[in-house]
């Protein structure tokens, strides 16, 4: 009798058969980063919930967030990138410079303004827009972006007032097959008028994790890190993130991208928390090369 009473109480929360049918048989593969050692540590990639990628100013965290978004889209995923720091146009310029690497006419994203001047001069000289599109490097890159990265959407951050707006557009996107949300960055997320940074960042990280779990959606939030650790020669850890210690409780995984002071083209990715596997050794991070002109990362050979 005692066992039957317990069995009934236990199964009121859902039986093991329910898990098998509703979760196991319908499991969605993690969203890969396409960075082999990172995916190996994450047991396949990013899973539903919050994943934080931090970095000091100029470490390349926004570039890395855009790169992860493009890699997910290139693999067939549907991704929404929300930048609360850069304009939508600036994000598109960075993505276009990366796409230009496949067109035979690569350009630096910082040179888009100069290329635009040339295009306007040709248009004023009588060149038709159809002719411009056929040979203009930015036009060719945008075409490649549309064809090869069709799953990438970039939101206009100026229209997003607070966390509620992020939740709303993520919910709308999920109905259209959204598979990854990237928010740049966590310390810029406003929450219902909360001014205190510690409380605001804590609430934002909590709600982003809950949003991901509820929608079955991986959420990558970029975050600012303190300079203090690097100044002392210490490798990054969970205490590196600015604003709130609660980030370490809410995130499923947390990584810090580091810029070595003696090698401006290198980046070191430290996985400092991971609920689904291991972390990197402080002295053996994932070693990356960064092509800032084209918003591109690659594994150091």
Task: Describe this protein's structure.
This protein is α/β, with parallel strands linked by helices and 301 residues long. The chain has a nine-stranded mixed sheet, sandwiched between helices. It contains twelve helices and nine strands. Helix 5 crosses helix 8 (137-148) and helix 9 (163-174) packs parallel to helix 10. The chain has helices spanning 2-11, 16-24, 36-41, 61-74, 88-99, 112-124, 129-135, 137-148, 163-174, 197-215, 228-231, 247-250; strands at 49-55, 79-83, 152-155, 180-184, 218-224, 253-258, 266-274, 286-291, 296-299. Helices cover 41% and strands 18% of the residues. It is globular and about 90 Å long. It starts with a helix and ends with a strand. The mean pLDDT is 91.
SSE class:
alpha/beta
What is the approximate shape? globular
| Oligomeric state of the chains present here | single chain
* Helix-strand sequence: HHHEHEHHHHEHEHEHHEEEE
The Rg value, from CA coordinates, equals 22 Å
Distance between the termini: 64 Å
- The helix count comes to 12
Major beta-sheet overview: 9 strands, mixed
| Beta-strand proportion | 15-25%
Provide mean pLDDT, rounded.
91
Strand order, largest beta sheet: 3-2-4-5-1-6-7-8-9
Total number of beta strands = 9
How would you summarize what this structure contains?
This protein is of the alpha/beta class and 301 residues long. It is 41% helix and 18% strand. It has a nine-stranded mixed sheet with strand order 3-2-4-5-1-6-7-8-9, sandwiched between helices.
